[in-house]
Structures are given as structure tokens and as C-alpha cells.
Amino acid sequence: MQALHFGAGNIGRGFIGKLLADAGIQLTFADVNQVVLDALNARHEYPVHVVGEQSQVELVKGVNAVNSASDDIIPLIAEVDLITTAVGPQILERIAGGIARGLVKRSDSGNRRPLNIIACENMVRGTSQLKGHVMKTLPEQYHAWAETNVGFVDSAVDRIVPPAEAGTTDPLEVTVETFSEWIVDKTQFKGDLPVIAGMELTDNLMAFVERKLFTLNTGHAITAYLGQLAGHKTIREAILDQHVRNVVKGAMEESGAVLIKRYGFAADQHAAYIEKILGRFENPYLKDDVERVGRQPLRKLSPGDRLIKPTLGTLEYGLPHTNLVTGIAAALHYRSEQDPQALELVDLLSQLGVQAALAQISGLEEDSEVVASVVKAYLAMA
Length: 382
Hints:
By secondary structure, the protein is of the alpha/beta class. The protein is built from 16 helices and 12 strands.
């Protein structure tokens, strides 16, 4: 089996690429970072530091790389069995044109083997969004062929992969936590279902997408935003602050009540899942900055993302949302000179005021009770 993976960054190498290579799949990375590409092609292997109670270094072997902006990806797309991505939500549209050109070559060459594409991004139904971008670029005469031969498979991914530590000279070295979860929608595959260790197949993907979004993502973001307000530098420092921890756990319990109502998760099992997430935030081997985790606050405050979507769920079911409101208010206080969205957030707050800015970003009704609650919490934090 052959795979092409877009994104040779820390997540690409430390998570999805590692699972594919460990499964014995012939793997090619596609990226634009020439330093990383040259190193992968010179060595064909790289070290992954898996950190936890039993830390170890695992060597990923037998890989190579191509430049994703070059025509080198076209013949690969025409031949591989699987395409995966870990490029970030904003980059999916950029790689769609290359994928479309590869699909044209695949069709023209008469390759009828099923091809499955899985976007492994920190977003809801990222592959469906990638499909939209690809089909927009793909000439119309190939649409029917693509619908028959190409599976666009949505997934939910979960693994904390912090940036490389300062002082690291190896461009390929990556650190990851022990925990990982890759859940894919088995109903969207073309051809036989793949058997890949670490990939879990489900026919109810949205339950797991929202479980991760409402728990790991919600908790991670609120830890970052409250942590920055309290002067903490890392996620671990922040979650060890009892006030931060109480709000984060409370928010995950509020969002969890929505999941239990919506999908029938067992309450005791979800409580254990929350405790596992809190333990992951405490991992002393993961030095993850609150500023990095909090970046792109406008996206994280958008209607379908980790702060507003679970809050909408509490409104739908008439459930409490006090801690989620606190997290939303803290997000409005996020500041970073390196993050364009953080700078845009400051401008919006200055121009519109808190109430109108939040309504514009989140889609919440400006005169709603929940917006008033966020404004009150925001002002109390000033």
C-alpha cells in the first residue's frame, strides 16, 4: 500500500505519518519546507520522542518526500492508495489544486483502483471541506469518475504535539504525547476498509468529532486563555492553577452534558474521559505555550468551533454554561503580537465594543442573555 501525506510538520511526522509508516505503508511526505524535505530524502527516517511515564524514542523508517508545490505530486496522486493531510485548516484550499491535477492524471491513465483521501485536521469534517475545494478545481468531466473512484473520508484526530524545544538542531526530531486517537468514518471509504493500527473505524463519526471538540479542544483553549490572563506560560502551569482547573473542568462538564444528551454517552465514562484529558494537560514532558494553544481566537470563537458550539448546545437543551461563558470571556482577552487574528480581535473590540464584536465573531444574538453574561464576565476580568 502506498500513501502520500501532505504536511511534514510536527503533527504530520509525529502522528499520522508515524502511524502510516509503522503500518508498513510506503509513505511519501509532501511539504514546502525544503530543509525538512532534504533531510527526509537524505535519511529516509526520523526520531519521534514519545513522552509520558514510559518515555521512549521511536524511529520512523522508510519514508521520502516531495515538494507539495511542484508537479512531483501529480504522478504520486495517480498511483497511491491513500492521501492524508495535516496541513492546518487554512491550507486545505491551497493543496486542492494539486490534488485535482493528480486526479485528472489518475483518471486519464486508466487507474480504477480506489483512492481514499483523509484530511486529519483540527476541524469538523475537514475532508468534506477539502472535497469541496477539490471538486471546484477539478474539470467537470471528471466529477462522475471522482465520485465513483475517490473516497473523501472525514476523521477526528487527537494527539498533543508541541513545537520542538529550543536548542534542537535536528529538523526532523519531534516530540509527542503517548495518547493518540484517529477515528475515521467507515461509511465514506471506496473499496476495502484499510487495516491500520491506530486508526479506528466508526459509522457515527460526529459523536466522536464533537466529543473531542467539546472536551480536548474546549478545555485546551480555555486553559490557554485563562492561563495567559493569570500570567502562566505553559499549559501545565495553567492547569495546575486551581482556579483555572476548576473553570476548565467545569466547562468540560457543561459541554459533556450536551454530548450525553445528544449522543447517549455514558456519564461515568465521559467523566473518566475528562479526567484523562486533564491528566494530559498536566504532562510534565509536554512544554506547550499558552500563547501557541490560544492562537487564532477568531476561529476558536466562531459558531462551529470549540467555545461557541458547545455553548449553543447548552442553550438547545437548557443546560448550565457558566464556565463556558467564563472561557469565552477569557478568549476575548487573548493577546499575541505574532497572531494576526489576535490583532484583528483587538481592533474589533476597539471599534465595535465587546457586545457587538462578540456577536459578529460568534454569530450569537447581540441582545441575548448569553452575550450579556459574557460581557459581564469579560469586564470582571479587565
